[in-house]
Amino acid sequence: MTAAIAAIRSAAAGDAITIAGERALCDRRGVVFFPDLGLLAVSDLHLEKGSAMARRGQLVPPYDSAATLLMLQAVIADHRPKTVVSLGDSFHDGGGAGRMPDVFRDQLAGMMSGRDWFWIAGNHDPEAPAGLPGETVRELAVGSLLFRHEPSARPVEGEIAGHLHPCARIVQRGRSVRRRCFASDGLRMILPAFGAYTGSLNVLDRAYRGMFRWEAFVAYMIGKERVYPIAASMLRPG
After folding, report:
1. For residues 223 and 226, what is the distance between their CA atoms, to the nearest angstrom?
2. Nearest CA among 181, 235, 199, 227 for reference residue 89
3. What was the pLDDT predicted at 53?
4. Are 155 and 190 a contacting pair, CB within 8 Å?
5. Per-residue pLDDT tens over the stretch 146-174
6. Domain covering 3-234 assigned CATH 3.60.21 in the classification
7. pLDDT category of residue 54 using cuts at 50, 70 and 90
8. pTM, whole model, 2 decimals?
9. Strands 175-184 and 166-172, how do they pair?
């Protein structure tokens, strides 16, 4: 067994699910990999959020792009996808790609080399990222799946989206646990935000209302070692 294959199995152990008939692996680092398609989807990188905040006078440590790209690089090295789909808000604003230091641009270009890369247009970054390769699209259909940034308000089979930054909360033995999660009912999925400086929104929030078949809903909560499937009945607001 190669080190890369071992890493994939370790990251995804017990986390294989099916979405609209396509086999999917929920990686604990916050991406979903479709092995039969050779496709990796990641959402809401929000690169250069730190520099965007600094321009507005909100001084935060400028390490978000470095941390986000380092994790993304590790994910891609493990799964070795043929195709990467970034589900929108890849940059925190329209000027993010232009502000990105050359060292990070080179790092990103290295990840993109030799594979198809699609930037889904997001509400934060509706235009193509300046000076970077890859194809920018509003949405992308692959097999039975449809990749877009904002999830549809009504159920759409095969839809893979981001935007809402889902998380879930449970209470066990008096202890509250709140984590980012993959939100799915087996027909569609909303991915957690991947970026280092991103927040999250509980899947019980009204923003998700009507999107899923609640009787089949599972929050795949991200733990330190793996992803844990949590039934809807166990979820708590907050």
Report:
1. 5
2. 199
3. 64
4. no
5. 999 999 999 899 999 999 999 999 998 88
6. yes
7. low
8. 0.90
9. antiparallel
